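hiii so um. not sure if this is the right channel but i have a protein structure encoded as tokens and i wanna go backwards to a sequence. like what aa goes where. can anyone help
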């Protein structure tokens, strides 16, 4: 097994040597030991370590926090701080650099190993998320589907080139405007406004597929018949819903690919803030000591489950429904109680006309949460399509009771 390459930044020679011996005994490679923040930056550029163990208080003009901030900005290498005691102001500065952990002196071998393993897992996850984000952002811009993302308050954050063309809004004018102002739907039969209900997605993570008998009204008054529209949640690395993504296309679109404007994505993003992290208490240190490989494996499983779910959601909004179903199934093999995977897969199966399989998916979701209003609504609709009128009426009656 290949272990991480680690740079030690510690101005006390004896402590640095003890730490190096502990790391080597655990199978890690120590690429260098340096005493100052300035030398730490040089060593990172020269050796490209996987991880840095950085003392907060260092010799010279640059302390460990300043060095970590520069390293994060220039190289993106994760840092674990080494500390014995620091005041609140110093810890506050340290937290702003988004460290991957803290190690308290004197060092304990088991704690070092557990902290580094967790940091390595977090680093892997962050790299995968960043890579996926780059590919997704590039893909979104060239899609022949309109893409609009909104924040938790329903305000527009991103709009791709195709959506600009269909709605008549550019990203500069649309930014932070309410979604229903930028994306206006009208019922094709009644010619009345069609309300796009975003609350279930923003509050509960529900993926919704909307009917096709709807027009998009552009800013200049033009009309285009909607072909399909999918509303999907956007979550952060902690699984918390931070907004939603609307993907839509229109019928009989004859536009030329070359007519797309070369508009770049402008996404309002912020790295999830680090949780407050004070000096570990003796109880916390004891907890870290007991961290086993079983827990580390569990962390990897949770990360993999989340990535399958995110990939499936991305594929569904791109209209790649078969691929999305496969990703939901992979997520469910890892965690069968993933209600969002069951529900979202049910929505896609229903859209594809596979009503029996969709019904089974919603039944699974309702086994996990019997009071899921969206799952009940979809189940009632499917039973009605299948001609099971009595069962459908019972479900809608149950839905009515739960909605009160």
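sure thing!! here u go:
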């Amino acid at each position: 097994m290949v272990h991480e390459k680690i740079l030690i930044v510690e101005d006390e020679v004896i402590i640095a040597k003890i730490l190096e011996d502990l790391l080597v005994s655990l199978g890690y490679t120590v690429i260098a030991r340096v005493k100052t923040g300035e030398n730490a930056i040089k060593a990172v550029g020269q050796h490209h370590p996987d991880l840095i163990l950085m003392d907060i208080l260092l010799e010279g003009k640059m302390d460990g926090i300043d060095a970590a901030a520069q390293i994060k900005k220039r190289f993106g290498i994760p840092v674990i701080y080494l500390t014995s005691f620091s005041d609140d102001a110093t810890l506050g500065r340290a937290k702003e650099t988004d460290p991957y952990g803290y190690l308290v002196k004197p060092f304990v071998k088991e704690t070092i190993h557990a902290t580094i393993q967790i940091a390595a897992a977090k680093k892997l996850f962050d790299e995968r998320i960043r890579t996926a984000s780059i590919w997704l952002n590039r893909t979104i811009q060239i899609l022949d589907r309109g893409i609009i993302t909104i924040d938790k308050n329903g305000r527009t954050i991103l709009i791709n080139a195709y959506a600009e063309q269909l709605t008549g809004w550019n990203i500069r004018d649309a930014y932070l405007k309410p979604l229903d102002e930028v994306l206006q739907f009208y019922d094709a039969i009644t010619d009345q406004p069609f309300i796009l209900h975003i609350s279930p997605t923003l509050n509960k993570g529900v993926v919704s597929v909307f009917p096709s008998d709807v027009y998009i009204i552009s800013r200049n008054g033009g009309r285009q018949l909607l072909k399909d529209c999918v509303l999907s949640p956007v979550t952060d690395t902690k699984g918390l819903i931070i907004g939603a993504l609307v993907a839509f296309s229109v019928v009989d679109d004859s536009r030329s690919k070359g007519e797309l404007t070369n508009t770049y994505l402008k996404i309002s993003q912020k790295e999830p803030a680090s949780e407050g992290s004070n000096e570990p208490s003796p109880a916390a240190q004891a907890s870290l000591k007991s961290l086993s490989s079983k827990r580390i494996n569990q962390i990897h499983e949770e990360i993999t489950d989340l990535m399958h779910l995110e990939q499936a959601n991305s594929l569904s909004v791109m209209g790649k429904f078969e691929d999305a179903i496969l990703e939901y199934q992979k997520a469910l093999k890892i965690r069968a109680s993933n209600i969002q995977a069951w529900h979202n897969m049910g929505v896609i199966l229903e859209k594809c006309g596979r009503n029996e399989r969709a019904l089974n998916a919603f039944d699974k979701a309702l086994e996990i949460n019997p009071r899921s209003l969206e799952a009940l609504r979809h189940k009632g609709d499917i039973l009605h399509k299948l001609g099971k009128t009595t069962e459908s009426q019972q479900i809608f009656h149950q839905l009515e009771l739960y909605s009160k």
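oh and The two ends are 57 Å apart (CA to CA).
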